[in-house]
Amino acid sequence: MAENGKPKTKLLDELEKGPWPSFVTEIKKTSDVSPMCDDLLGQLELSYEERKGHWKHGGIVGVLGYGGGVIGRYSDVPEEFPKVAHFHTLRVNQPSGWFYTSDALRTLCGIWERHGSGLTNMHGSTGDIIFLGTKTDELEPTFAELTAAGFDLGGSGSCMRTPSCCVGPARCEWACYDTMKLCYDFTQAYQDELHRPPFPYKFKIKCAGCANDCVAAAARADLSIIGIWKDDIQQDDAAVAEYAAGGLDIQKDVCDRCPSRCMNWDGKKLTIENRECVRCMHCINVMPKALRPGKERGAAILIGAKAPIVQGALLSSVLIPFVPAEELFETMKELISRLWEFWDEYGKNRERIGELIQRVGMANFLDAIGLDPAPEMVTAPRDNPYIFFQNKDQK
Amino acid sequence: MTAPPKRITDIGPPHYEKYLPPVVKRNYGQWKYHETLAPGVLCHVAESGEKLYTVRAGSPRLLSVHTIRLFADLADKHSGGYLRFTSRNNVEFLLEDPAHIEPLIQDLKAAGYPVGGTNASISNIVHTQGWVHCHSSATDASGLVKCMMDALFPYFVEEKLPAKLRIAVACCLNMCGAVHCSDIAVLGIHRKPPKIRHDVLPKVCEVPTLIASCPTGAIRPATVSGKQSVEVLEEQCMFCGNCYTVCPAMPLNDPENDGISIWVGGKVSNARSTPKFTKLAIPYLPNHPPRWPEVVNAVTNIVEVYASHARKFERMGEWIERIGWPRFFQLTGIEFTRYHLDDFKNAGMTYARSAHLRF
Residue B352 burial (CB < 10 Å; 0-12/13-18/19+)? Predict the structure, then answer.
């Protein structure tokens, strides 16, 4: 300990230099909220010196009646840093699209100043507001104040994790369905599955309004709901001409970049062969004033994305090519109940639904959830001739 | 005696509608197009003709309540009290009055929060907890992000890249930061098998669960000093840490051998090409806090080579696919090693199965 009870942070001080805002500065300036911040810095400095972490593995803590939402964390050097002997995290369910008023943020800050370290993540990887570091005794009082203010905890463990969504129709002209509402409706519909982990492993739902996928649904969600349209791209020829006059090379930057080469530019008029369009969003991204998604909007449903743990990373793959926007919630609820039923029965411990599909095969999975195979589900039909013909197809 | 207050549970998040600025409520789902006025400044125009101005600023993600209150004060001063955060942990102020854009930018800059991160820039780096809060991290995450963003700062405040470039940091293979689809991924790794703590293992772990956790079947039951425990077939261990996740008696941390790997060419967007995984560029760099010079230099080099060679609109992975991986390694000066050859489940898919070759 240096003077004034503040930890020596020779190495961490190096991270207060440079133009990017510093997390070390953030921790230091929160010292007046809680002395936990001093011991956090002290322990972090030790990690920087020794090049290893100093948090113990897990620890089951939580609030009454919930099986998740709190990540237990204990220091492995509590004698040296007693103020972070307990340093638990709360996940607080974010509002759709991460919108706030200044008053709502001040309410959250007040609660966390009274009960925790005063440090947060805005936001955590799943999308939740993260309250970083408090003692076991403070969990219930924090929760009581949060719920009184209209907030609730998010998910952790083998539950339906806090759903998240892009900004959607709140600020984006490309939103093909109401991501904000669907995310909110799912979160409310599955409160039990969110707070009381019932599954073999985690289950994530992410709602992206278009194929640009600003919430990385295709990479990170067991169920990826990606906005798409069915009819023709809406085209404003005058605006196309304006882009051309403004210096955009429509042949090179738009037509030649189109993955299905469905566009033709004759120097005056852009012609789109909409039947060939794969709805990748490139031309719309480049000319947002001139081209817009069609009017018949909805979402493609993809399944199974995950990071490498346990059996390797997966991207989501197509399950339902198109669900009209107005039918999304009811269709998805029906689908989700079938997915969970199958996963619950056949999933192994720590097996994500994507890995289960890999293990049992897509065909068996489709049989189980009652969906017919469709060519949109594959990049190509099988190229191996070892086919498991079924009894019903044999004489 | 008064009854205890009723316990409130299962209410879910607040309804988003009460946090939407009036201009958003009036034009919800009715946006027509948007323009970029400057790096970090967007203008969305509604069918009604109304405009919404967004000013985006970078943050370290780990925020003090003091900083959140500063953002709240700035929102009151400039944007009617309305603000939001992005999926990459930037803060966005939502303005109706364009006269406030410049004063807001000046206030943010004065407070040390740079404006930028839009379009063909390097936006904020998404990342994990690292040594600040995680038990399984092979390195710190916030520190790496700080060092890289310091070096790449000009790419945040300007839009001077061929296309957007997204960087992510995960401090172990659990990848709670999901780095497997970023343009550049920085991943903390272990390189030594778990050091089994036979003394505590029977007390804190279920042996069958532990054995089942290993993706390569490298863990076997064993009796050590008369007690039930496990052994690890070390030649089958790929240092993934799955065993440690289910059993605290299997720590992999090793300061001398833990380090950082660099991956490139992933994307999640469907624009032009389909989503892609990141692929290995550099299998190991040493863990050198507090400024990680080897990692910062390696990432800066990859960014600069990409910036000077890729064509307009080409993401990292699209550029590499066009020029081919041999040229990527040649241009970046990165050594191609045995570790670049996949040897897990779908390894064969990555072998070059054609005679398409360039020299």
Answer: exposed
B47-B56-B39 Cα angle (round to 5): 85
- Please classify residue B347 by burial: count the beta carbons closer than 10 Å to its beta carbon, then call 0-12 exposed, 13-18 middle and 19+ buried: exposed
By Cβ distance, the residue of A109, A215, A292 closest to B87 is A215
Which residue bears the tokens 């296309």?
B163
Q: Measured between CB atoms, does B15 come within 8 Å of chain A?
A: yes
Q: Which of A311, A262, A329, A333 is nearest to A291 (CA)?
A: A262
Q: Is the pLDDT of residue B177 over 80?
A: no
Q: How confident is the model at residue B359 (pLDDT cuts 50, 70, 90)?
A: confident
Q: Which residues of A touch B173 (CB under 8 A)?
A: 308-309
Confirm or reject contact between A119 and chain B (CB < 8 A): yes
Residue A290 has φ and ψ, to the nearest 5°, of -100, -35
pTM over 0.90? The answer is: yes
Decide: residue B329, CB within 10 A, 0-12 exposed, 13-18 middle, 19+ buried. Answer: middle
Token code pair at residue A304: 């199974």
Residues of A in contact with B93 (CB under 8 A): none
How near does any CA of chain B get to the CA of A370, in Å?
A: 28
| Of A323-327, B18-22, B343-347, the least confident | B343-347
Chain B: closest CA distance from residue A2 (Å): 20
Which of these, A239, A232, A234, lies nearest to A289 by C-alpha position?
A: A239
Strand partners, A70: A90
pLDDT at A136: 96
Which parts of chain B are beta strand (E)? 31-38, 41-46, 51-57, 62-64, 82-85, 91-95, 167-170, 184-189, 219-224, 227-232, 259-264, 279-286
Chains A, B: CB pairs < 8 Å: 357
Phi, psi dihedrals of residue B262, rounded to the nearest 5° = -120, 130
Q: Which of B113, B272, B290 sits opposite A280 (nearest CB)?
A: B272
Tokens of B142: 């916030």
Question: Residue B202 is encoded by which pair of tokens?
Answer: 């029977």
| 249-278 in chain B: CB under 8 A from chain A | 253-255, 258, 266, 268-273, 275, 277
Question: Which tokens sit at A280?
Answer: 């990748």
pLDDT at residue A39 tops 90: yes
| Chain A positions in Cβ-Cβ contact with residue B311 (cut-off 8 Å) | none
- Name A170's Cβ contacts closer than 8 Å, sequence gap at least 6: A97, A99, A180, B16, B20, B24, B28
Specify the residue for token string 């939580």.
Answer: A62
The answer to whether B86 contacts A307, with C-beta atoms less than 8 Å apart, is no
Smallest CA–CA distance, residue B253 to chain A, in Å, is 7
DSSP string covering B60-98, please?
Answer: -SEEEHHHHHHHHHHHHHHSTTEEEE-TTS-EEEEES-G
Give the residue from A354, A331, A368, A70 showing the smallest Cα distance to A200.
A354
Q: Is A166 an interface residue toward B (CB < 8 Å)? A: yes
Cβ atoms A270, A286 nearer than 8 A: no
Window 282-301 of B, Cβ < 8 Å to A: 287, 289-291
Q: Name the percent of chain A lying above pLDDT 70.
A: 99
Query: Can you name the residues that pair with B282 across neighbouring β-strands?
Result: B262
pLDDT higher than 60, residue A3:
no
User: Looking at this predicted complex, what is its ipTM?
Assistant: 0.96
Name the strand (E) or helix (H) holding B245.
helix B242-246
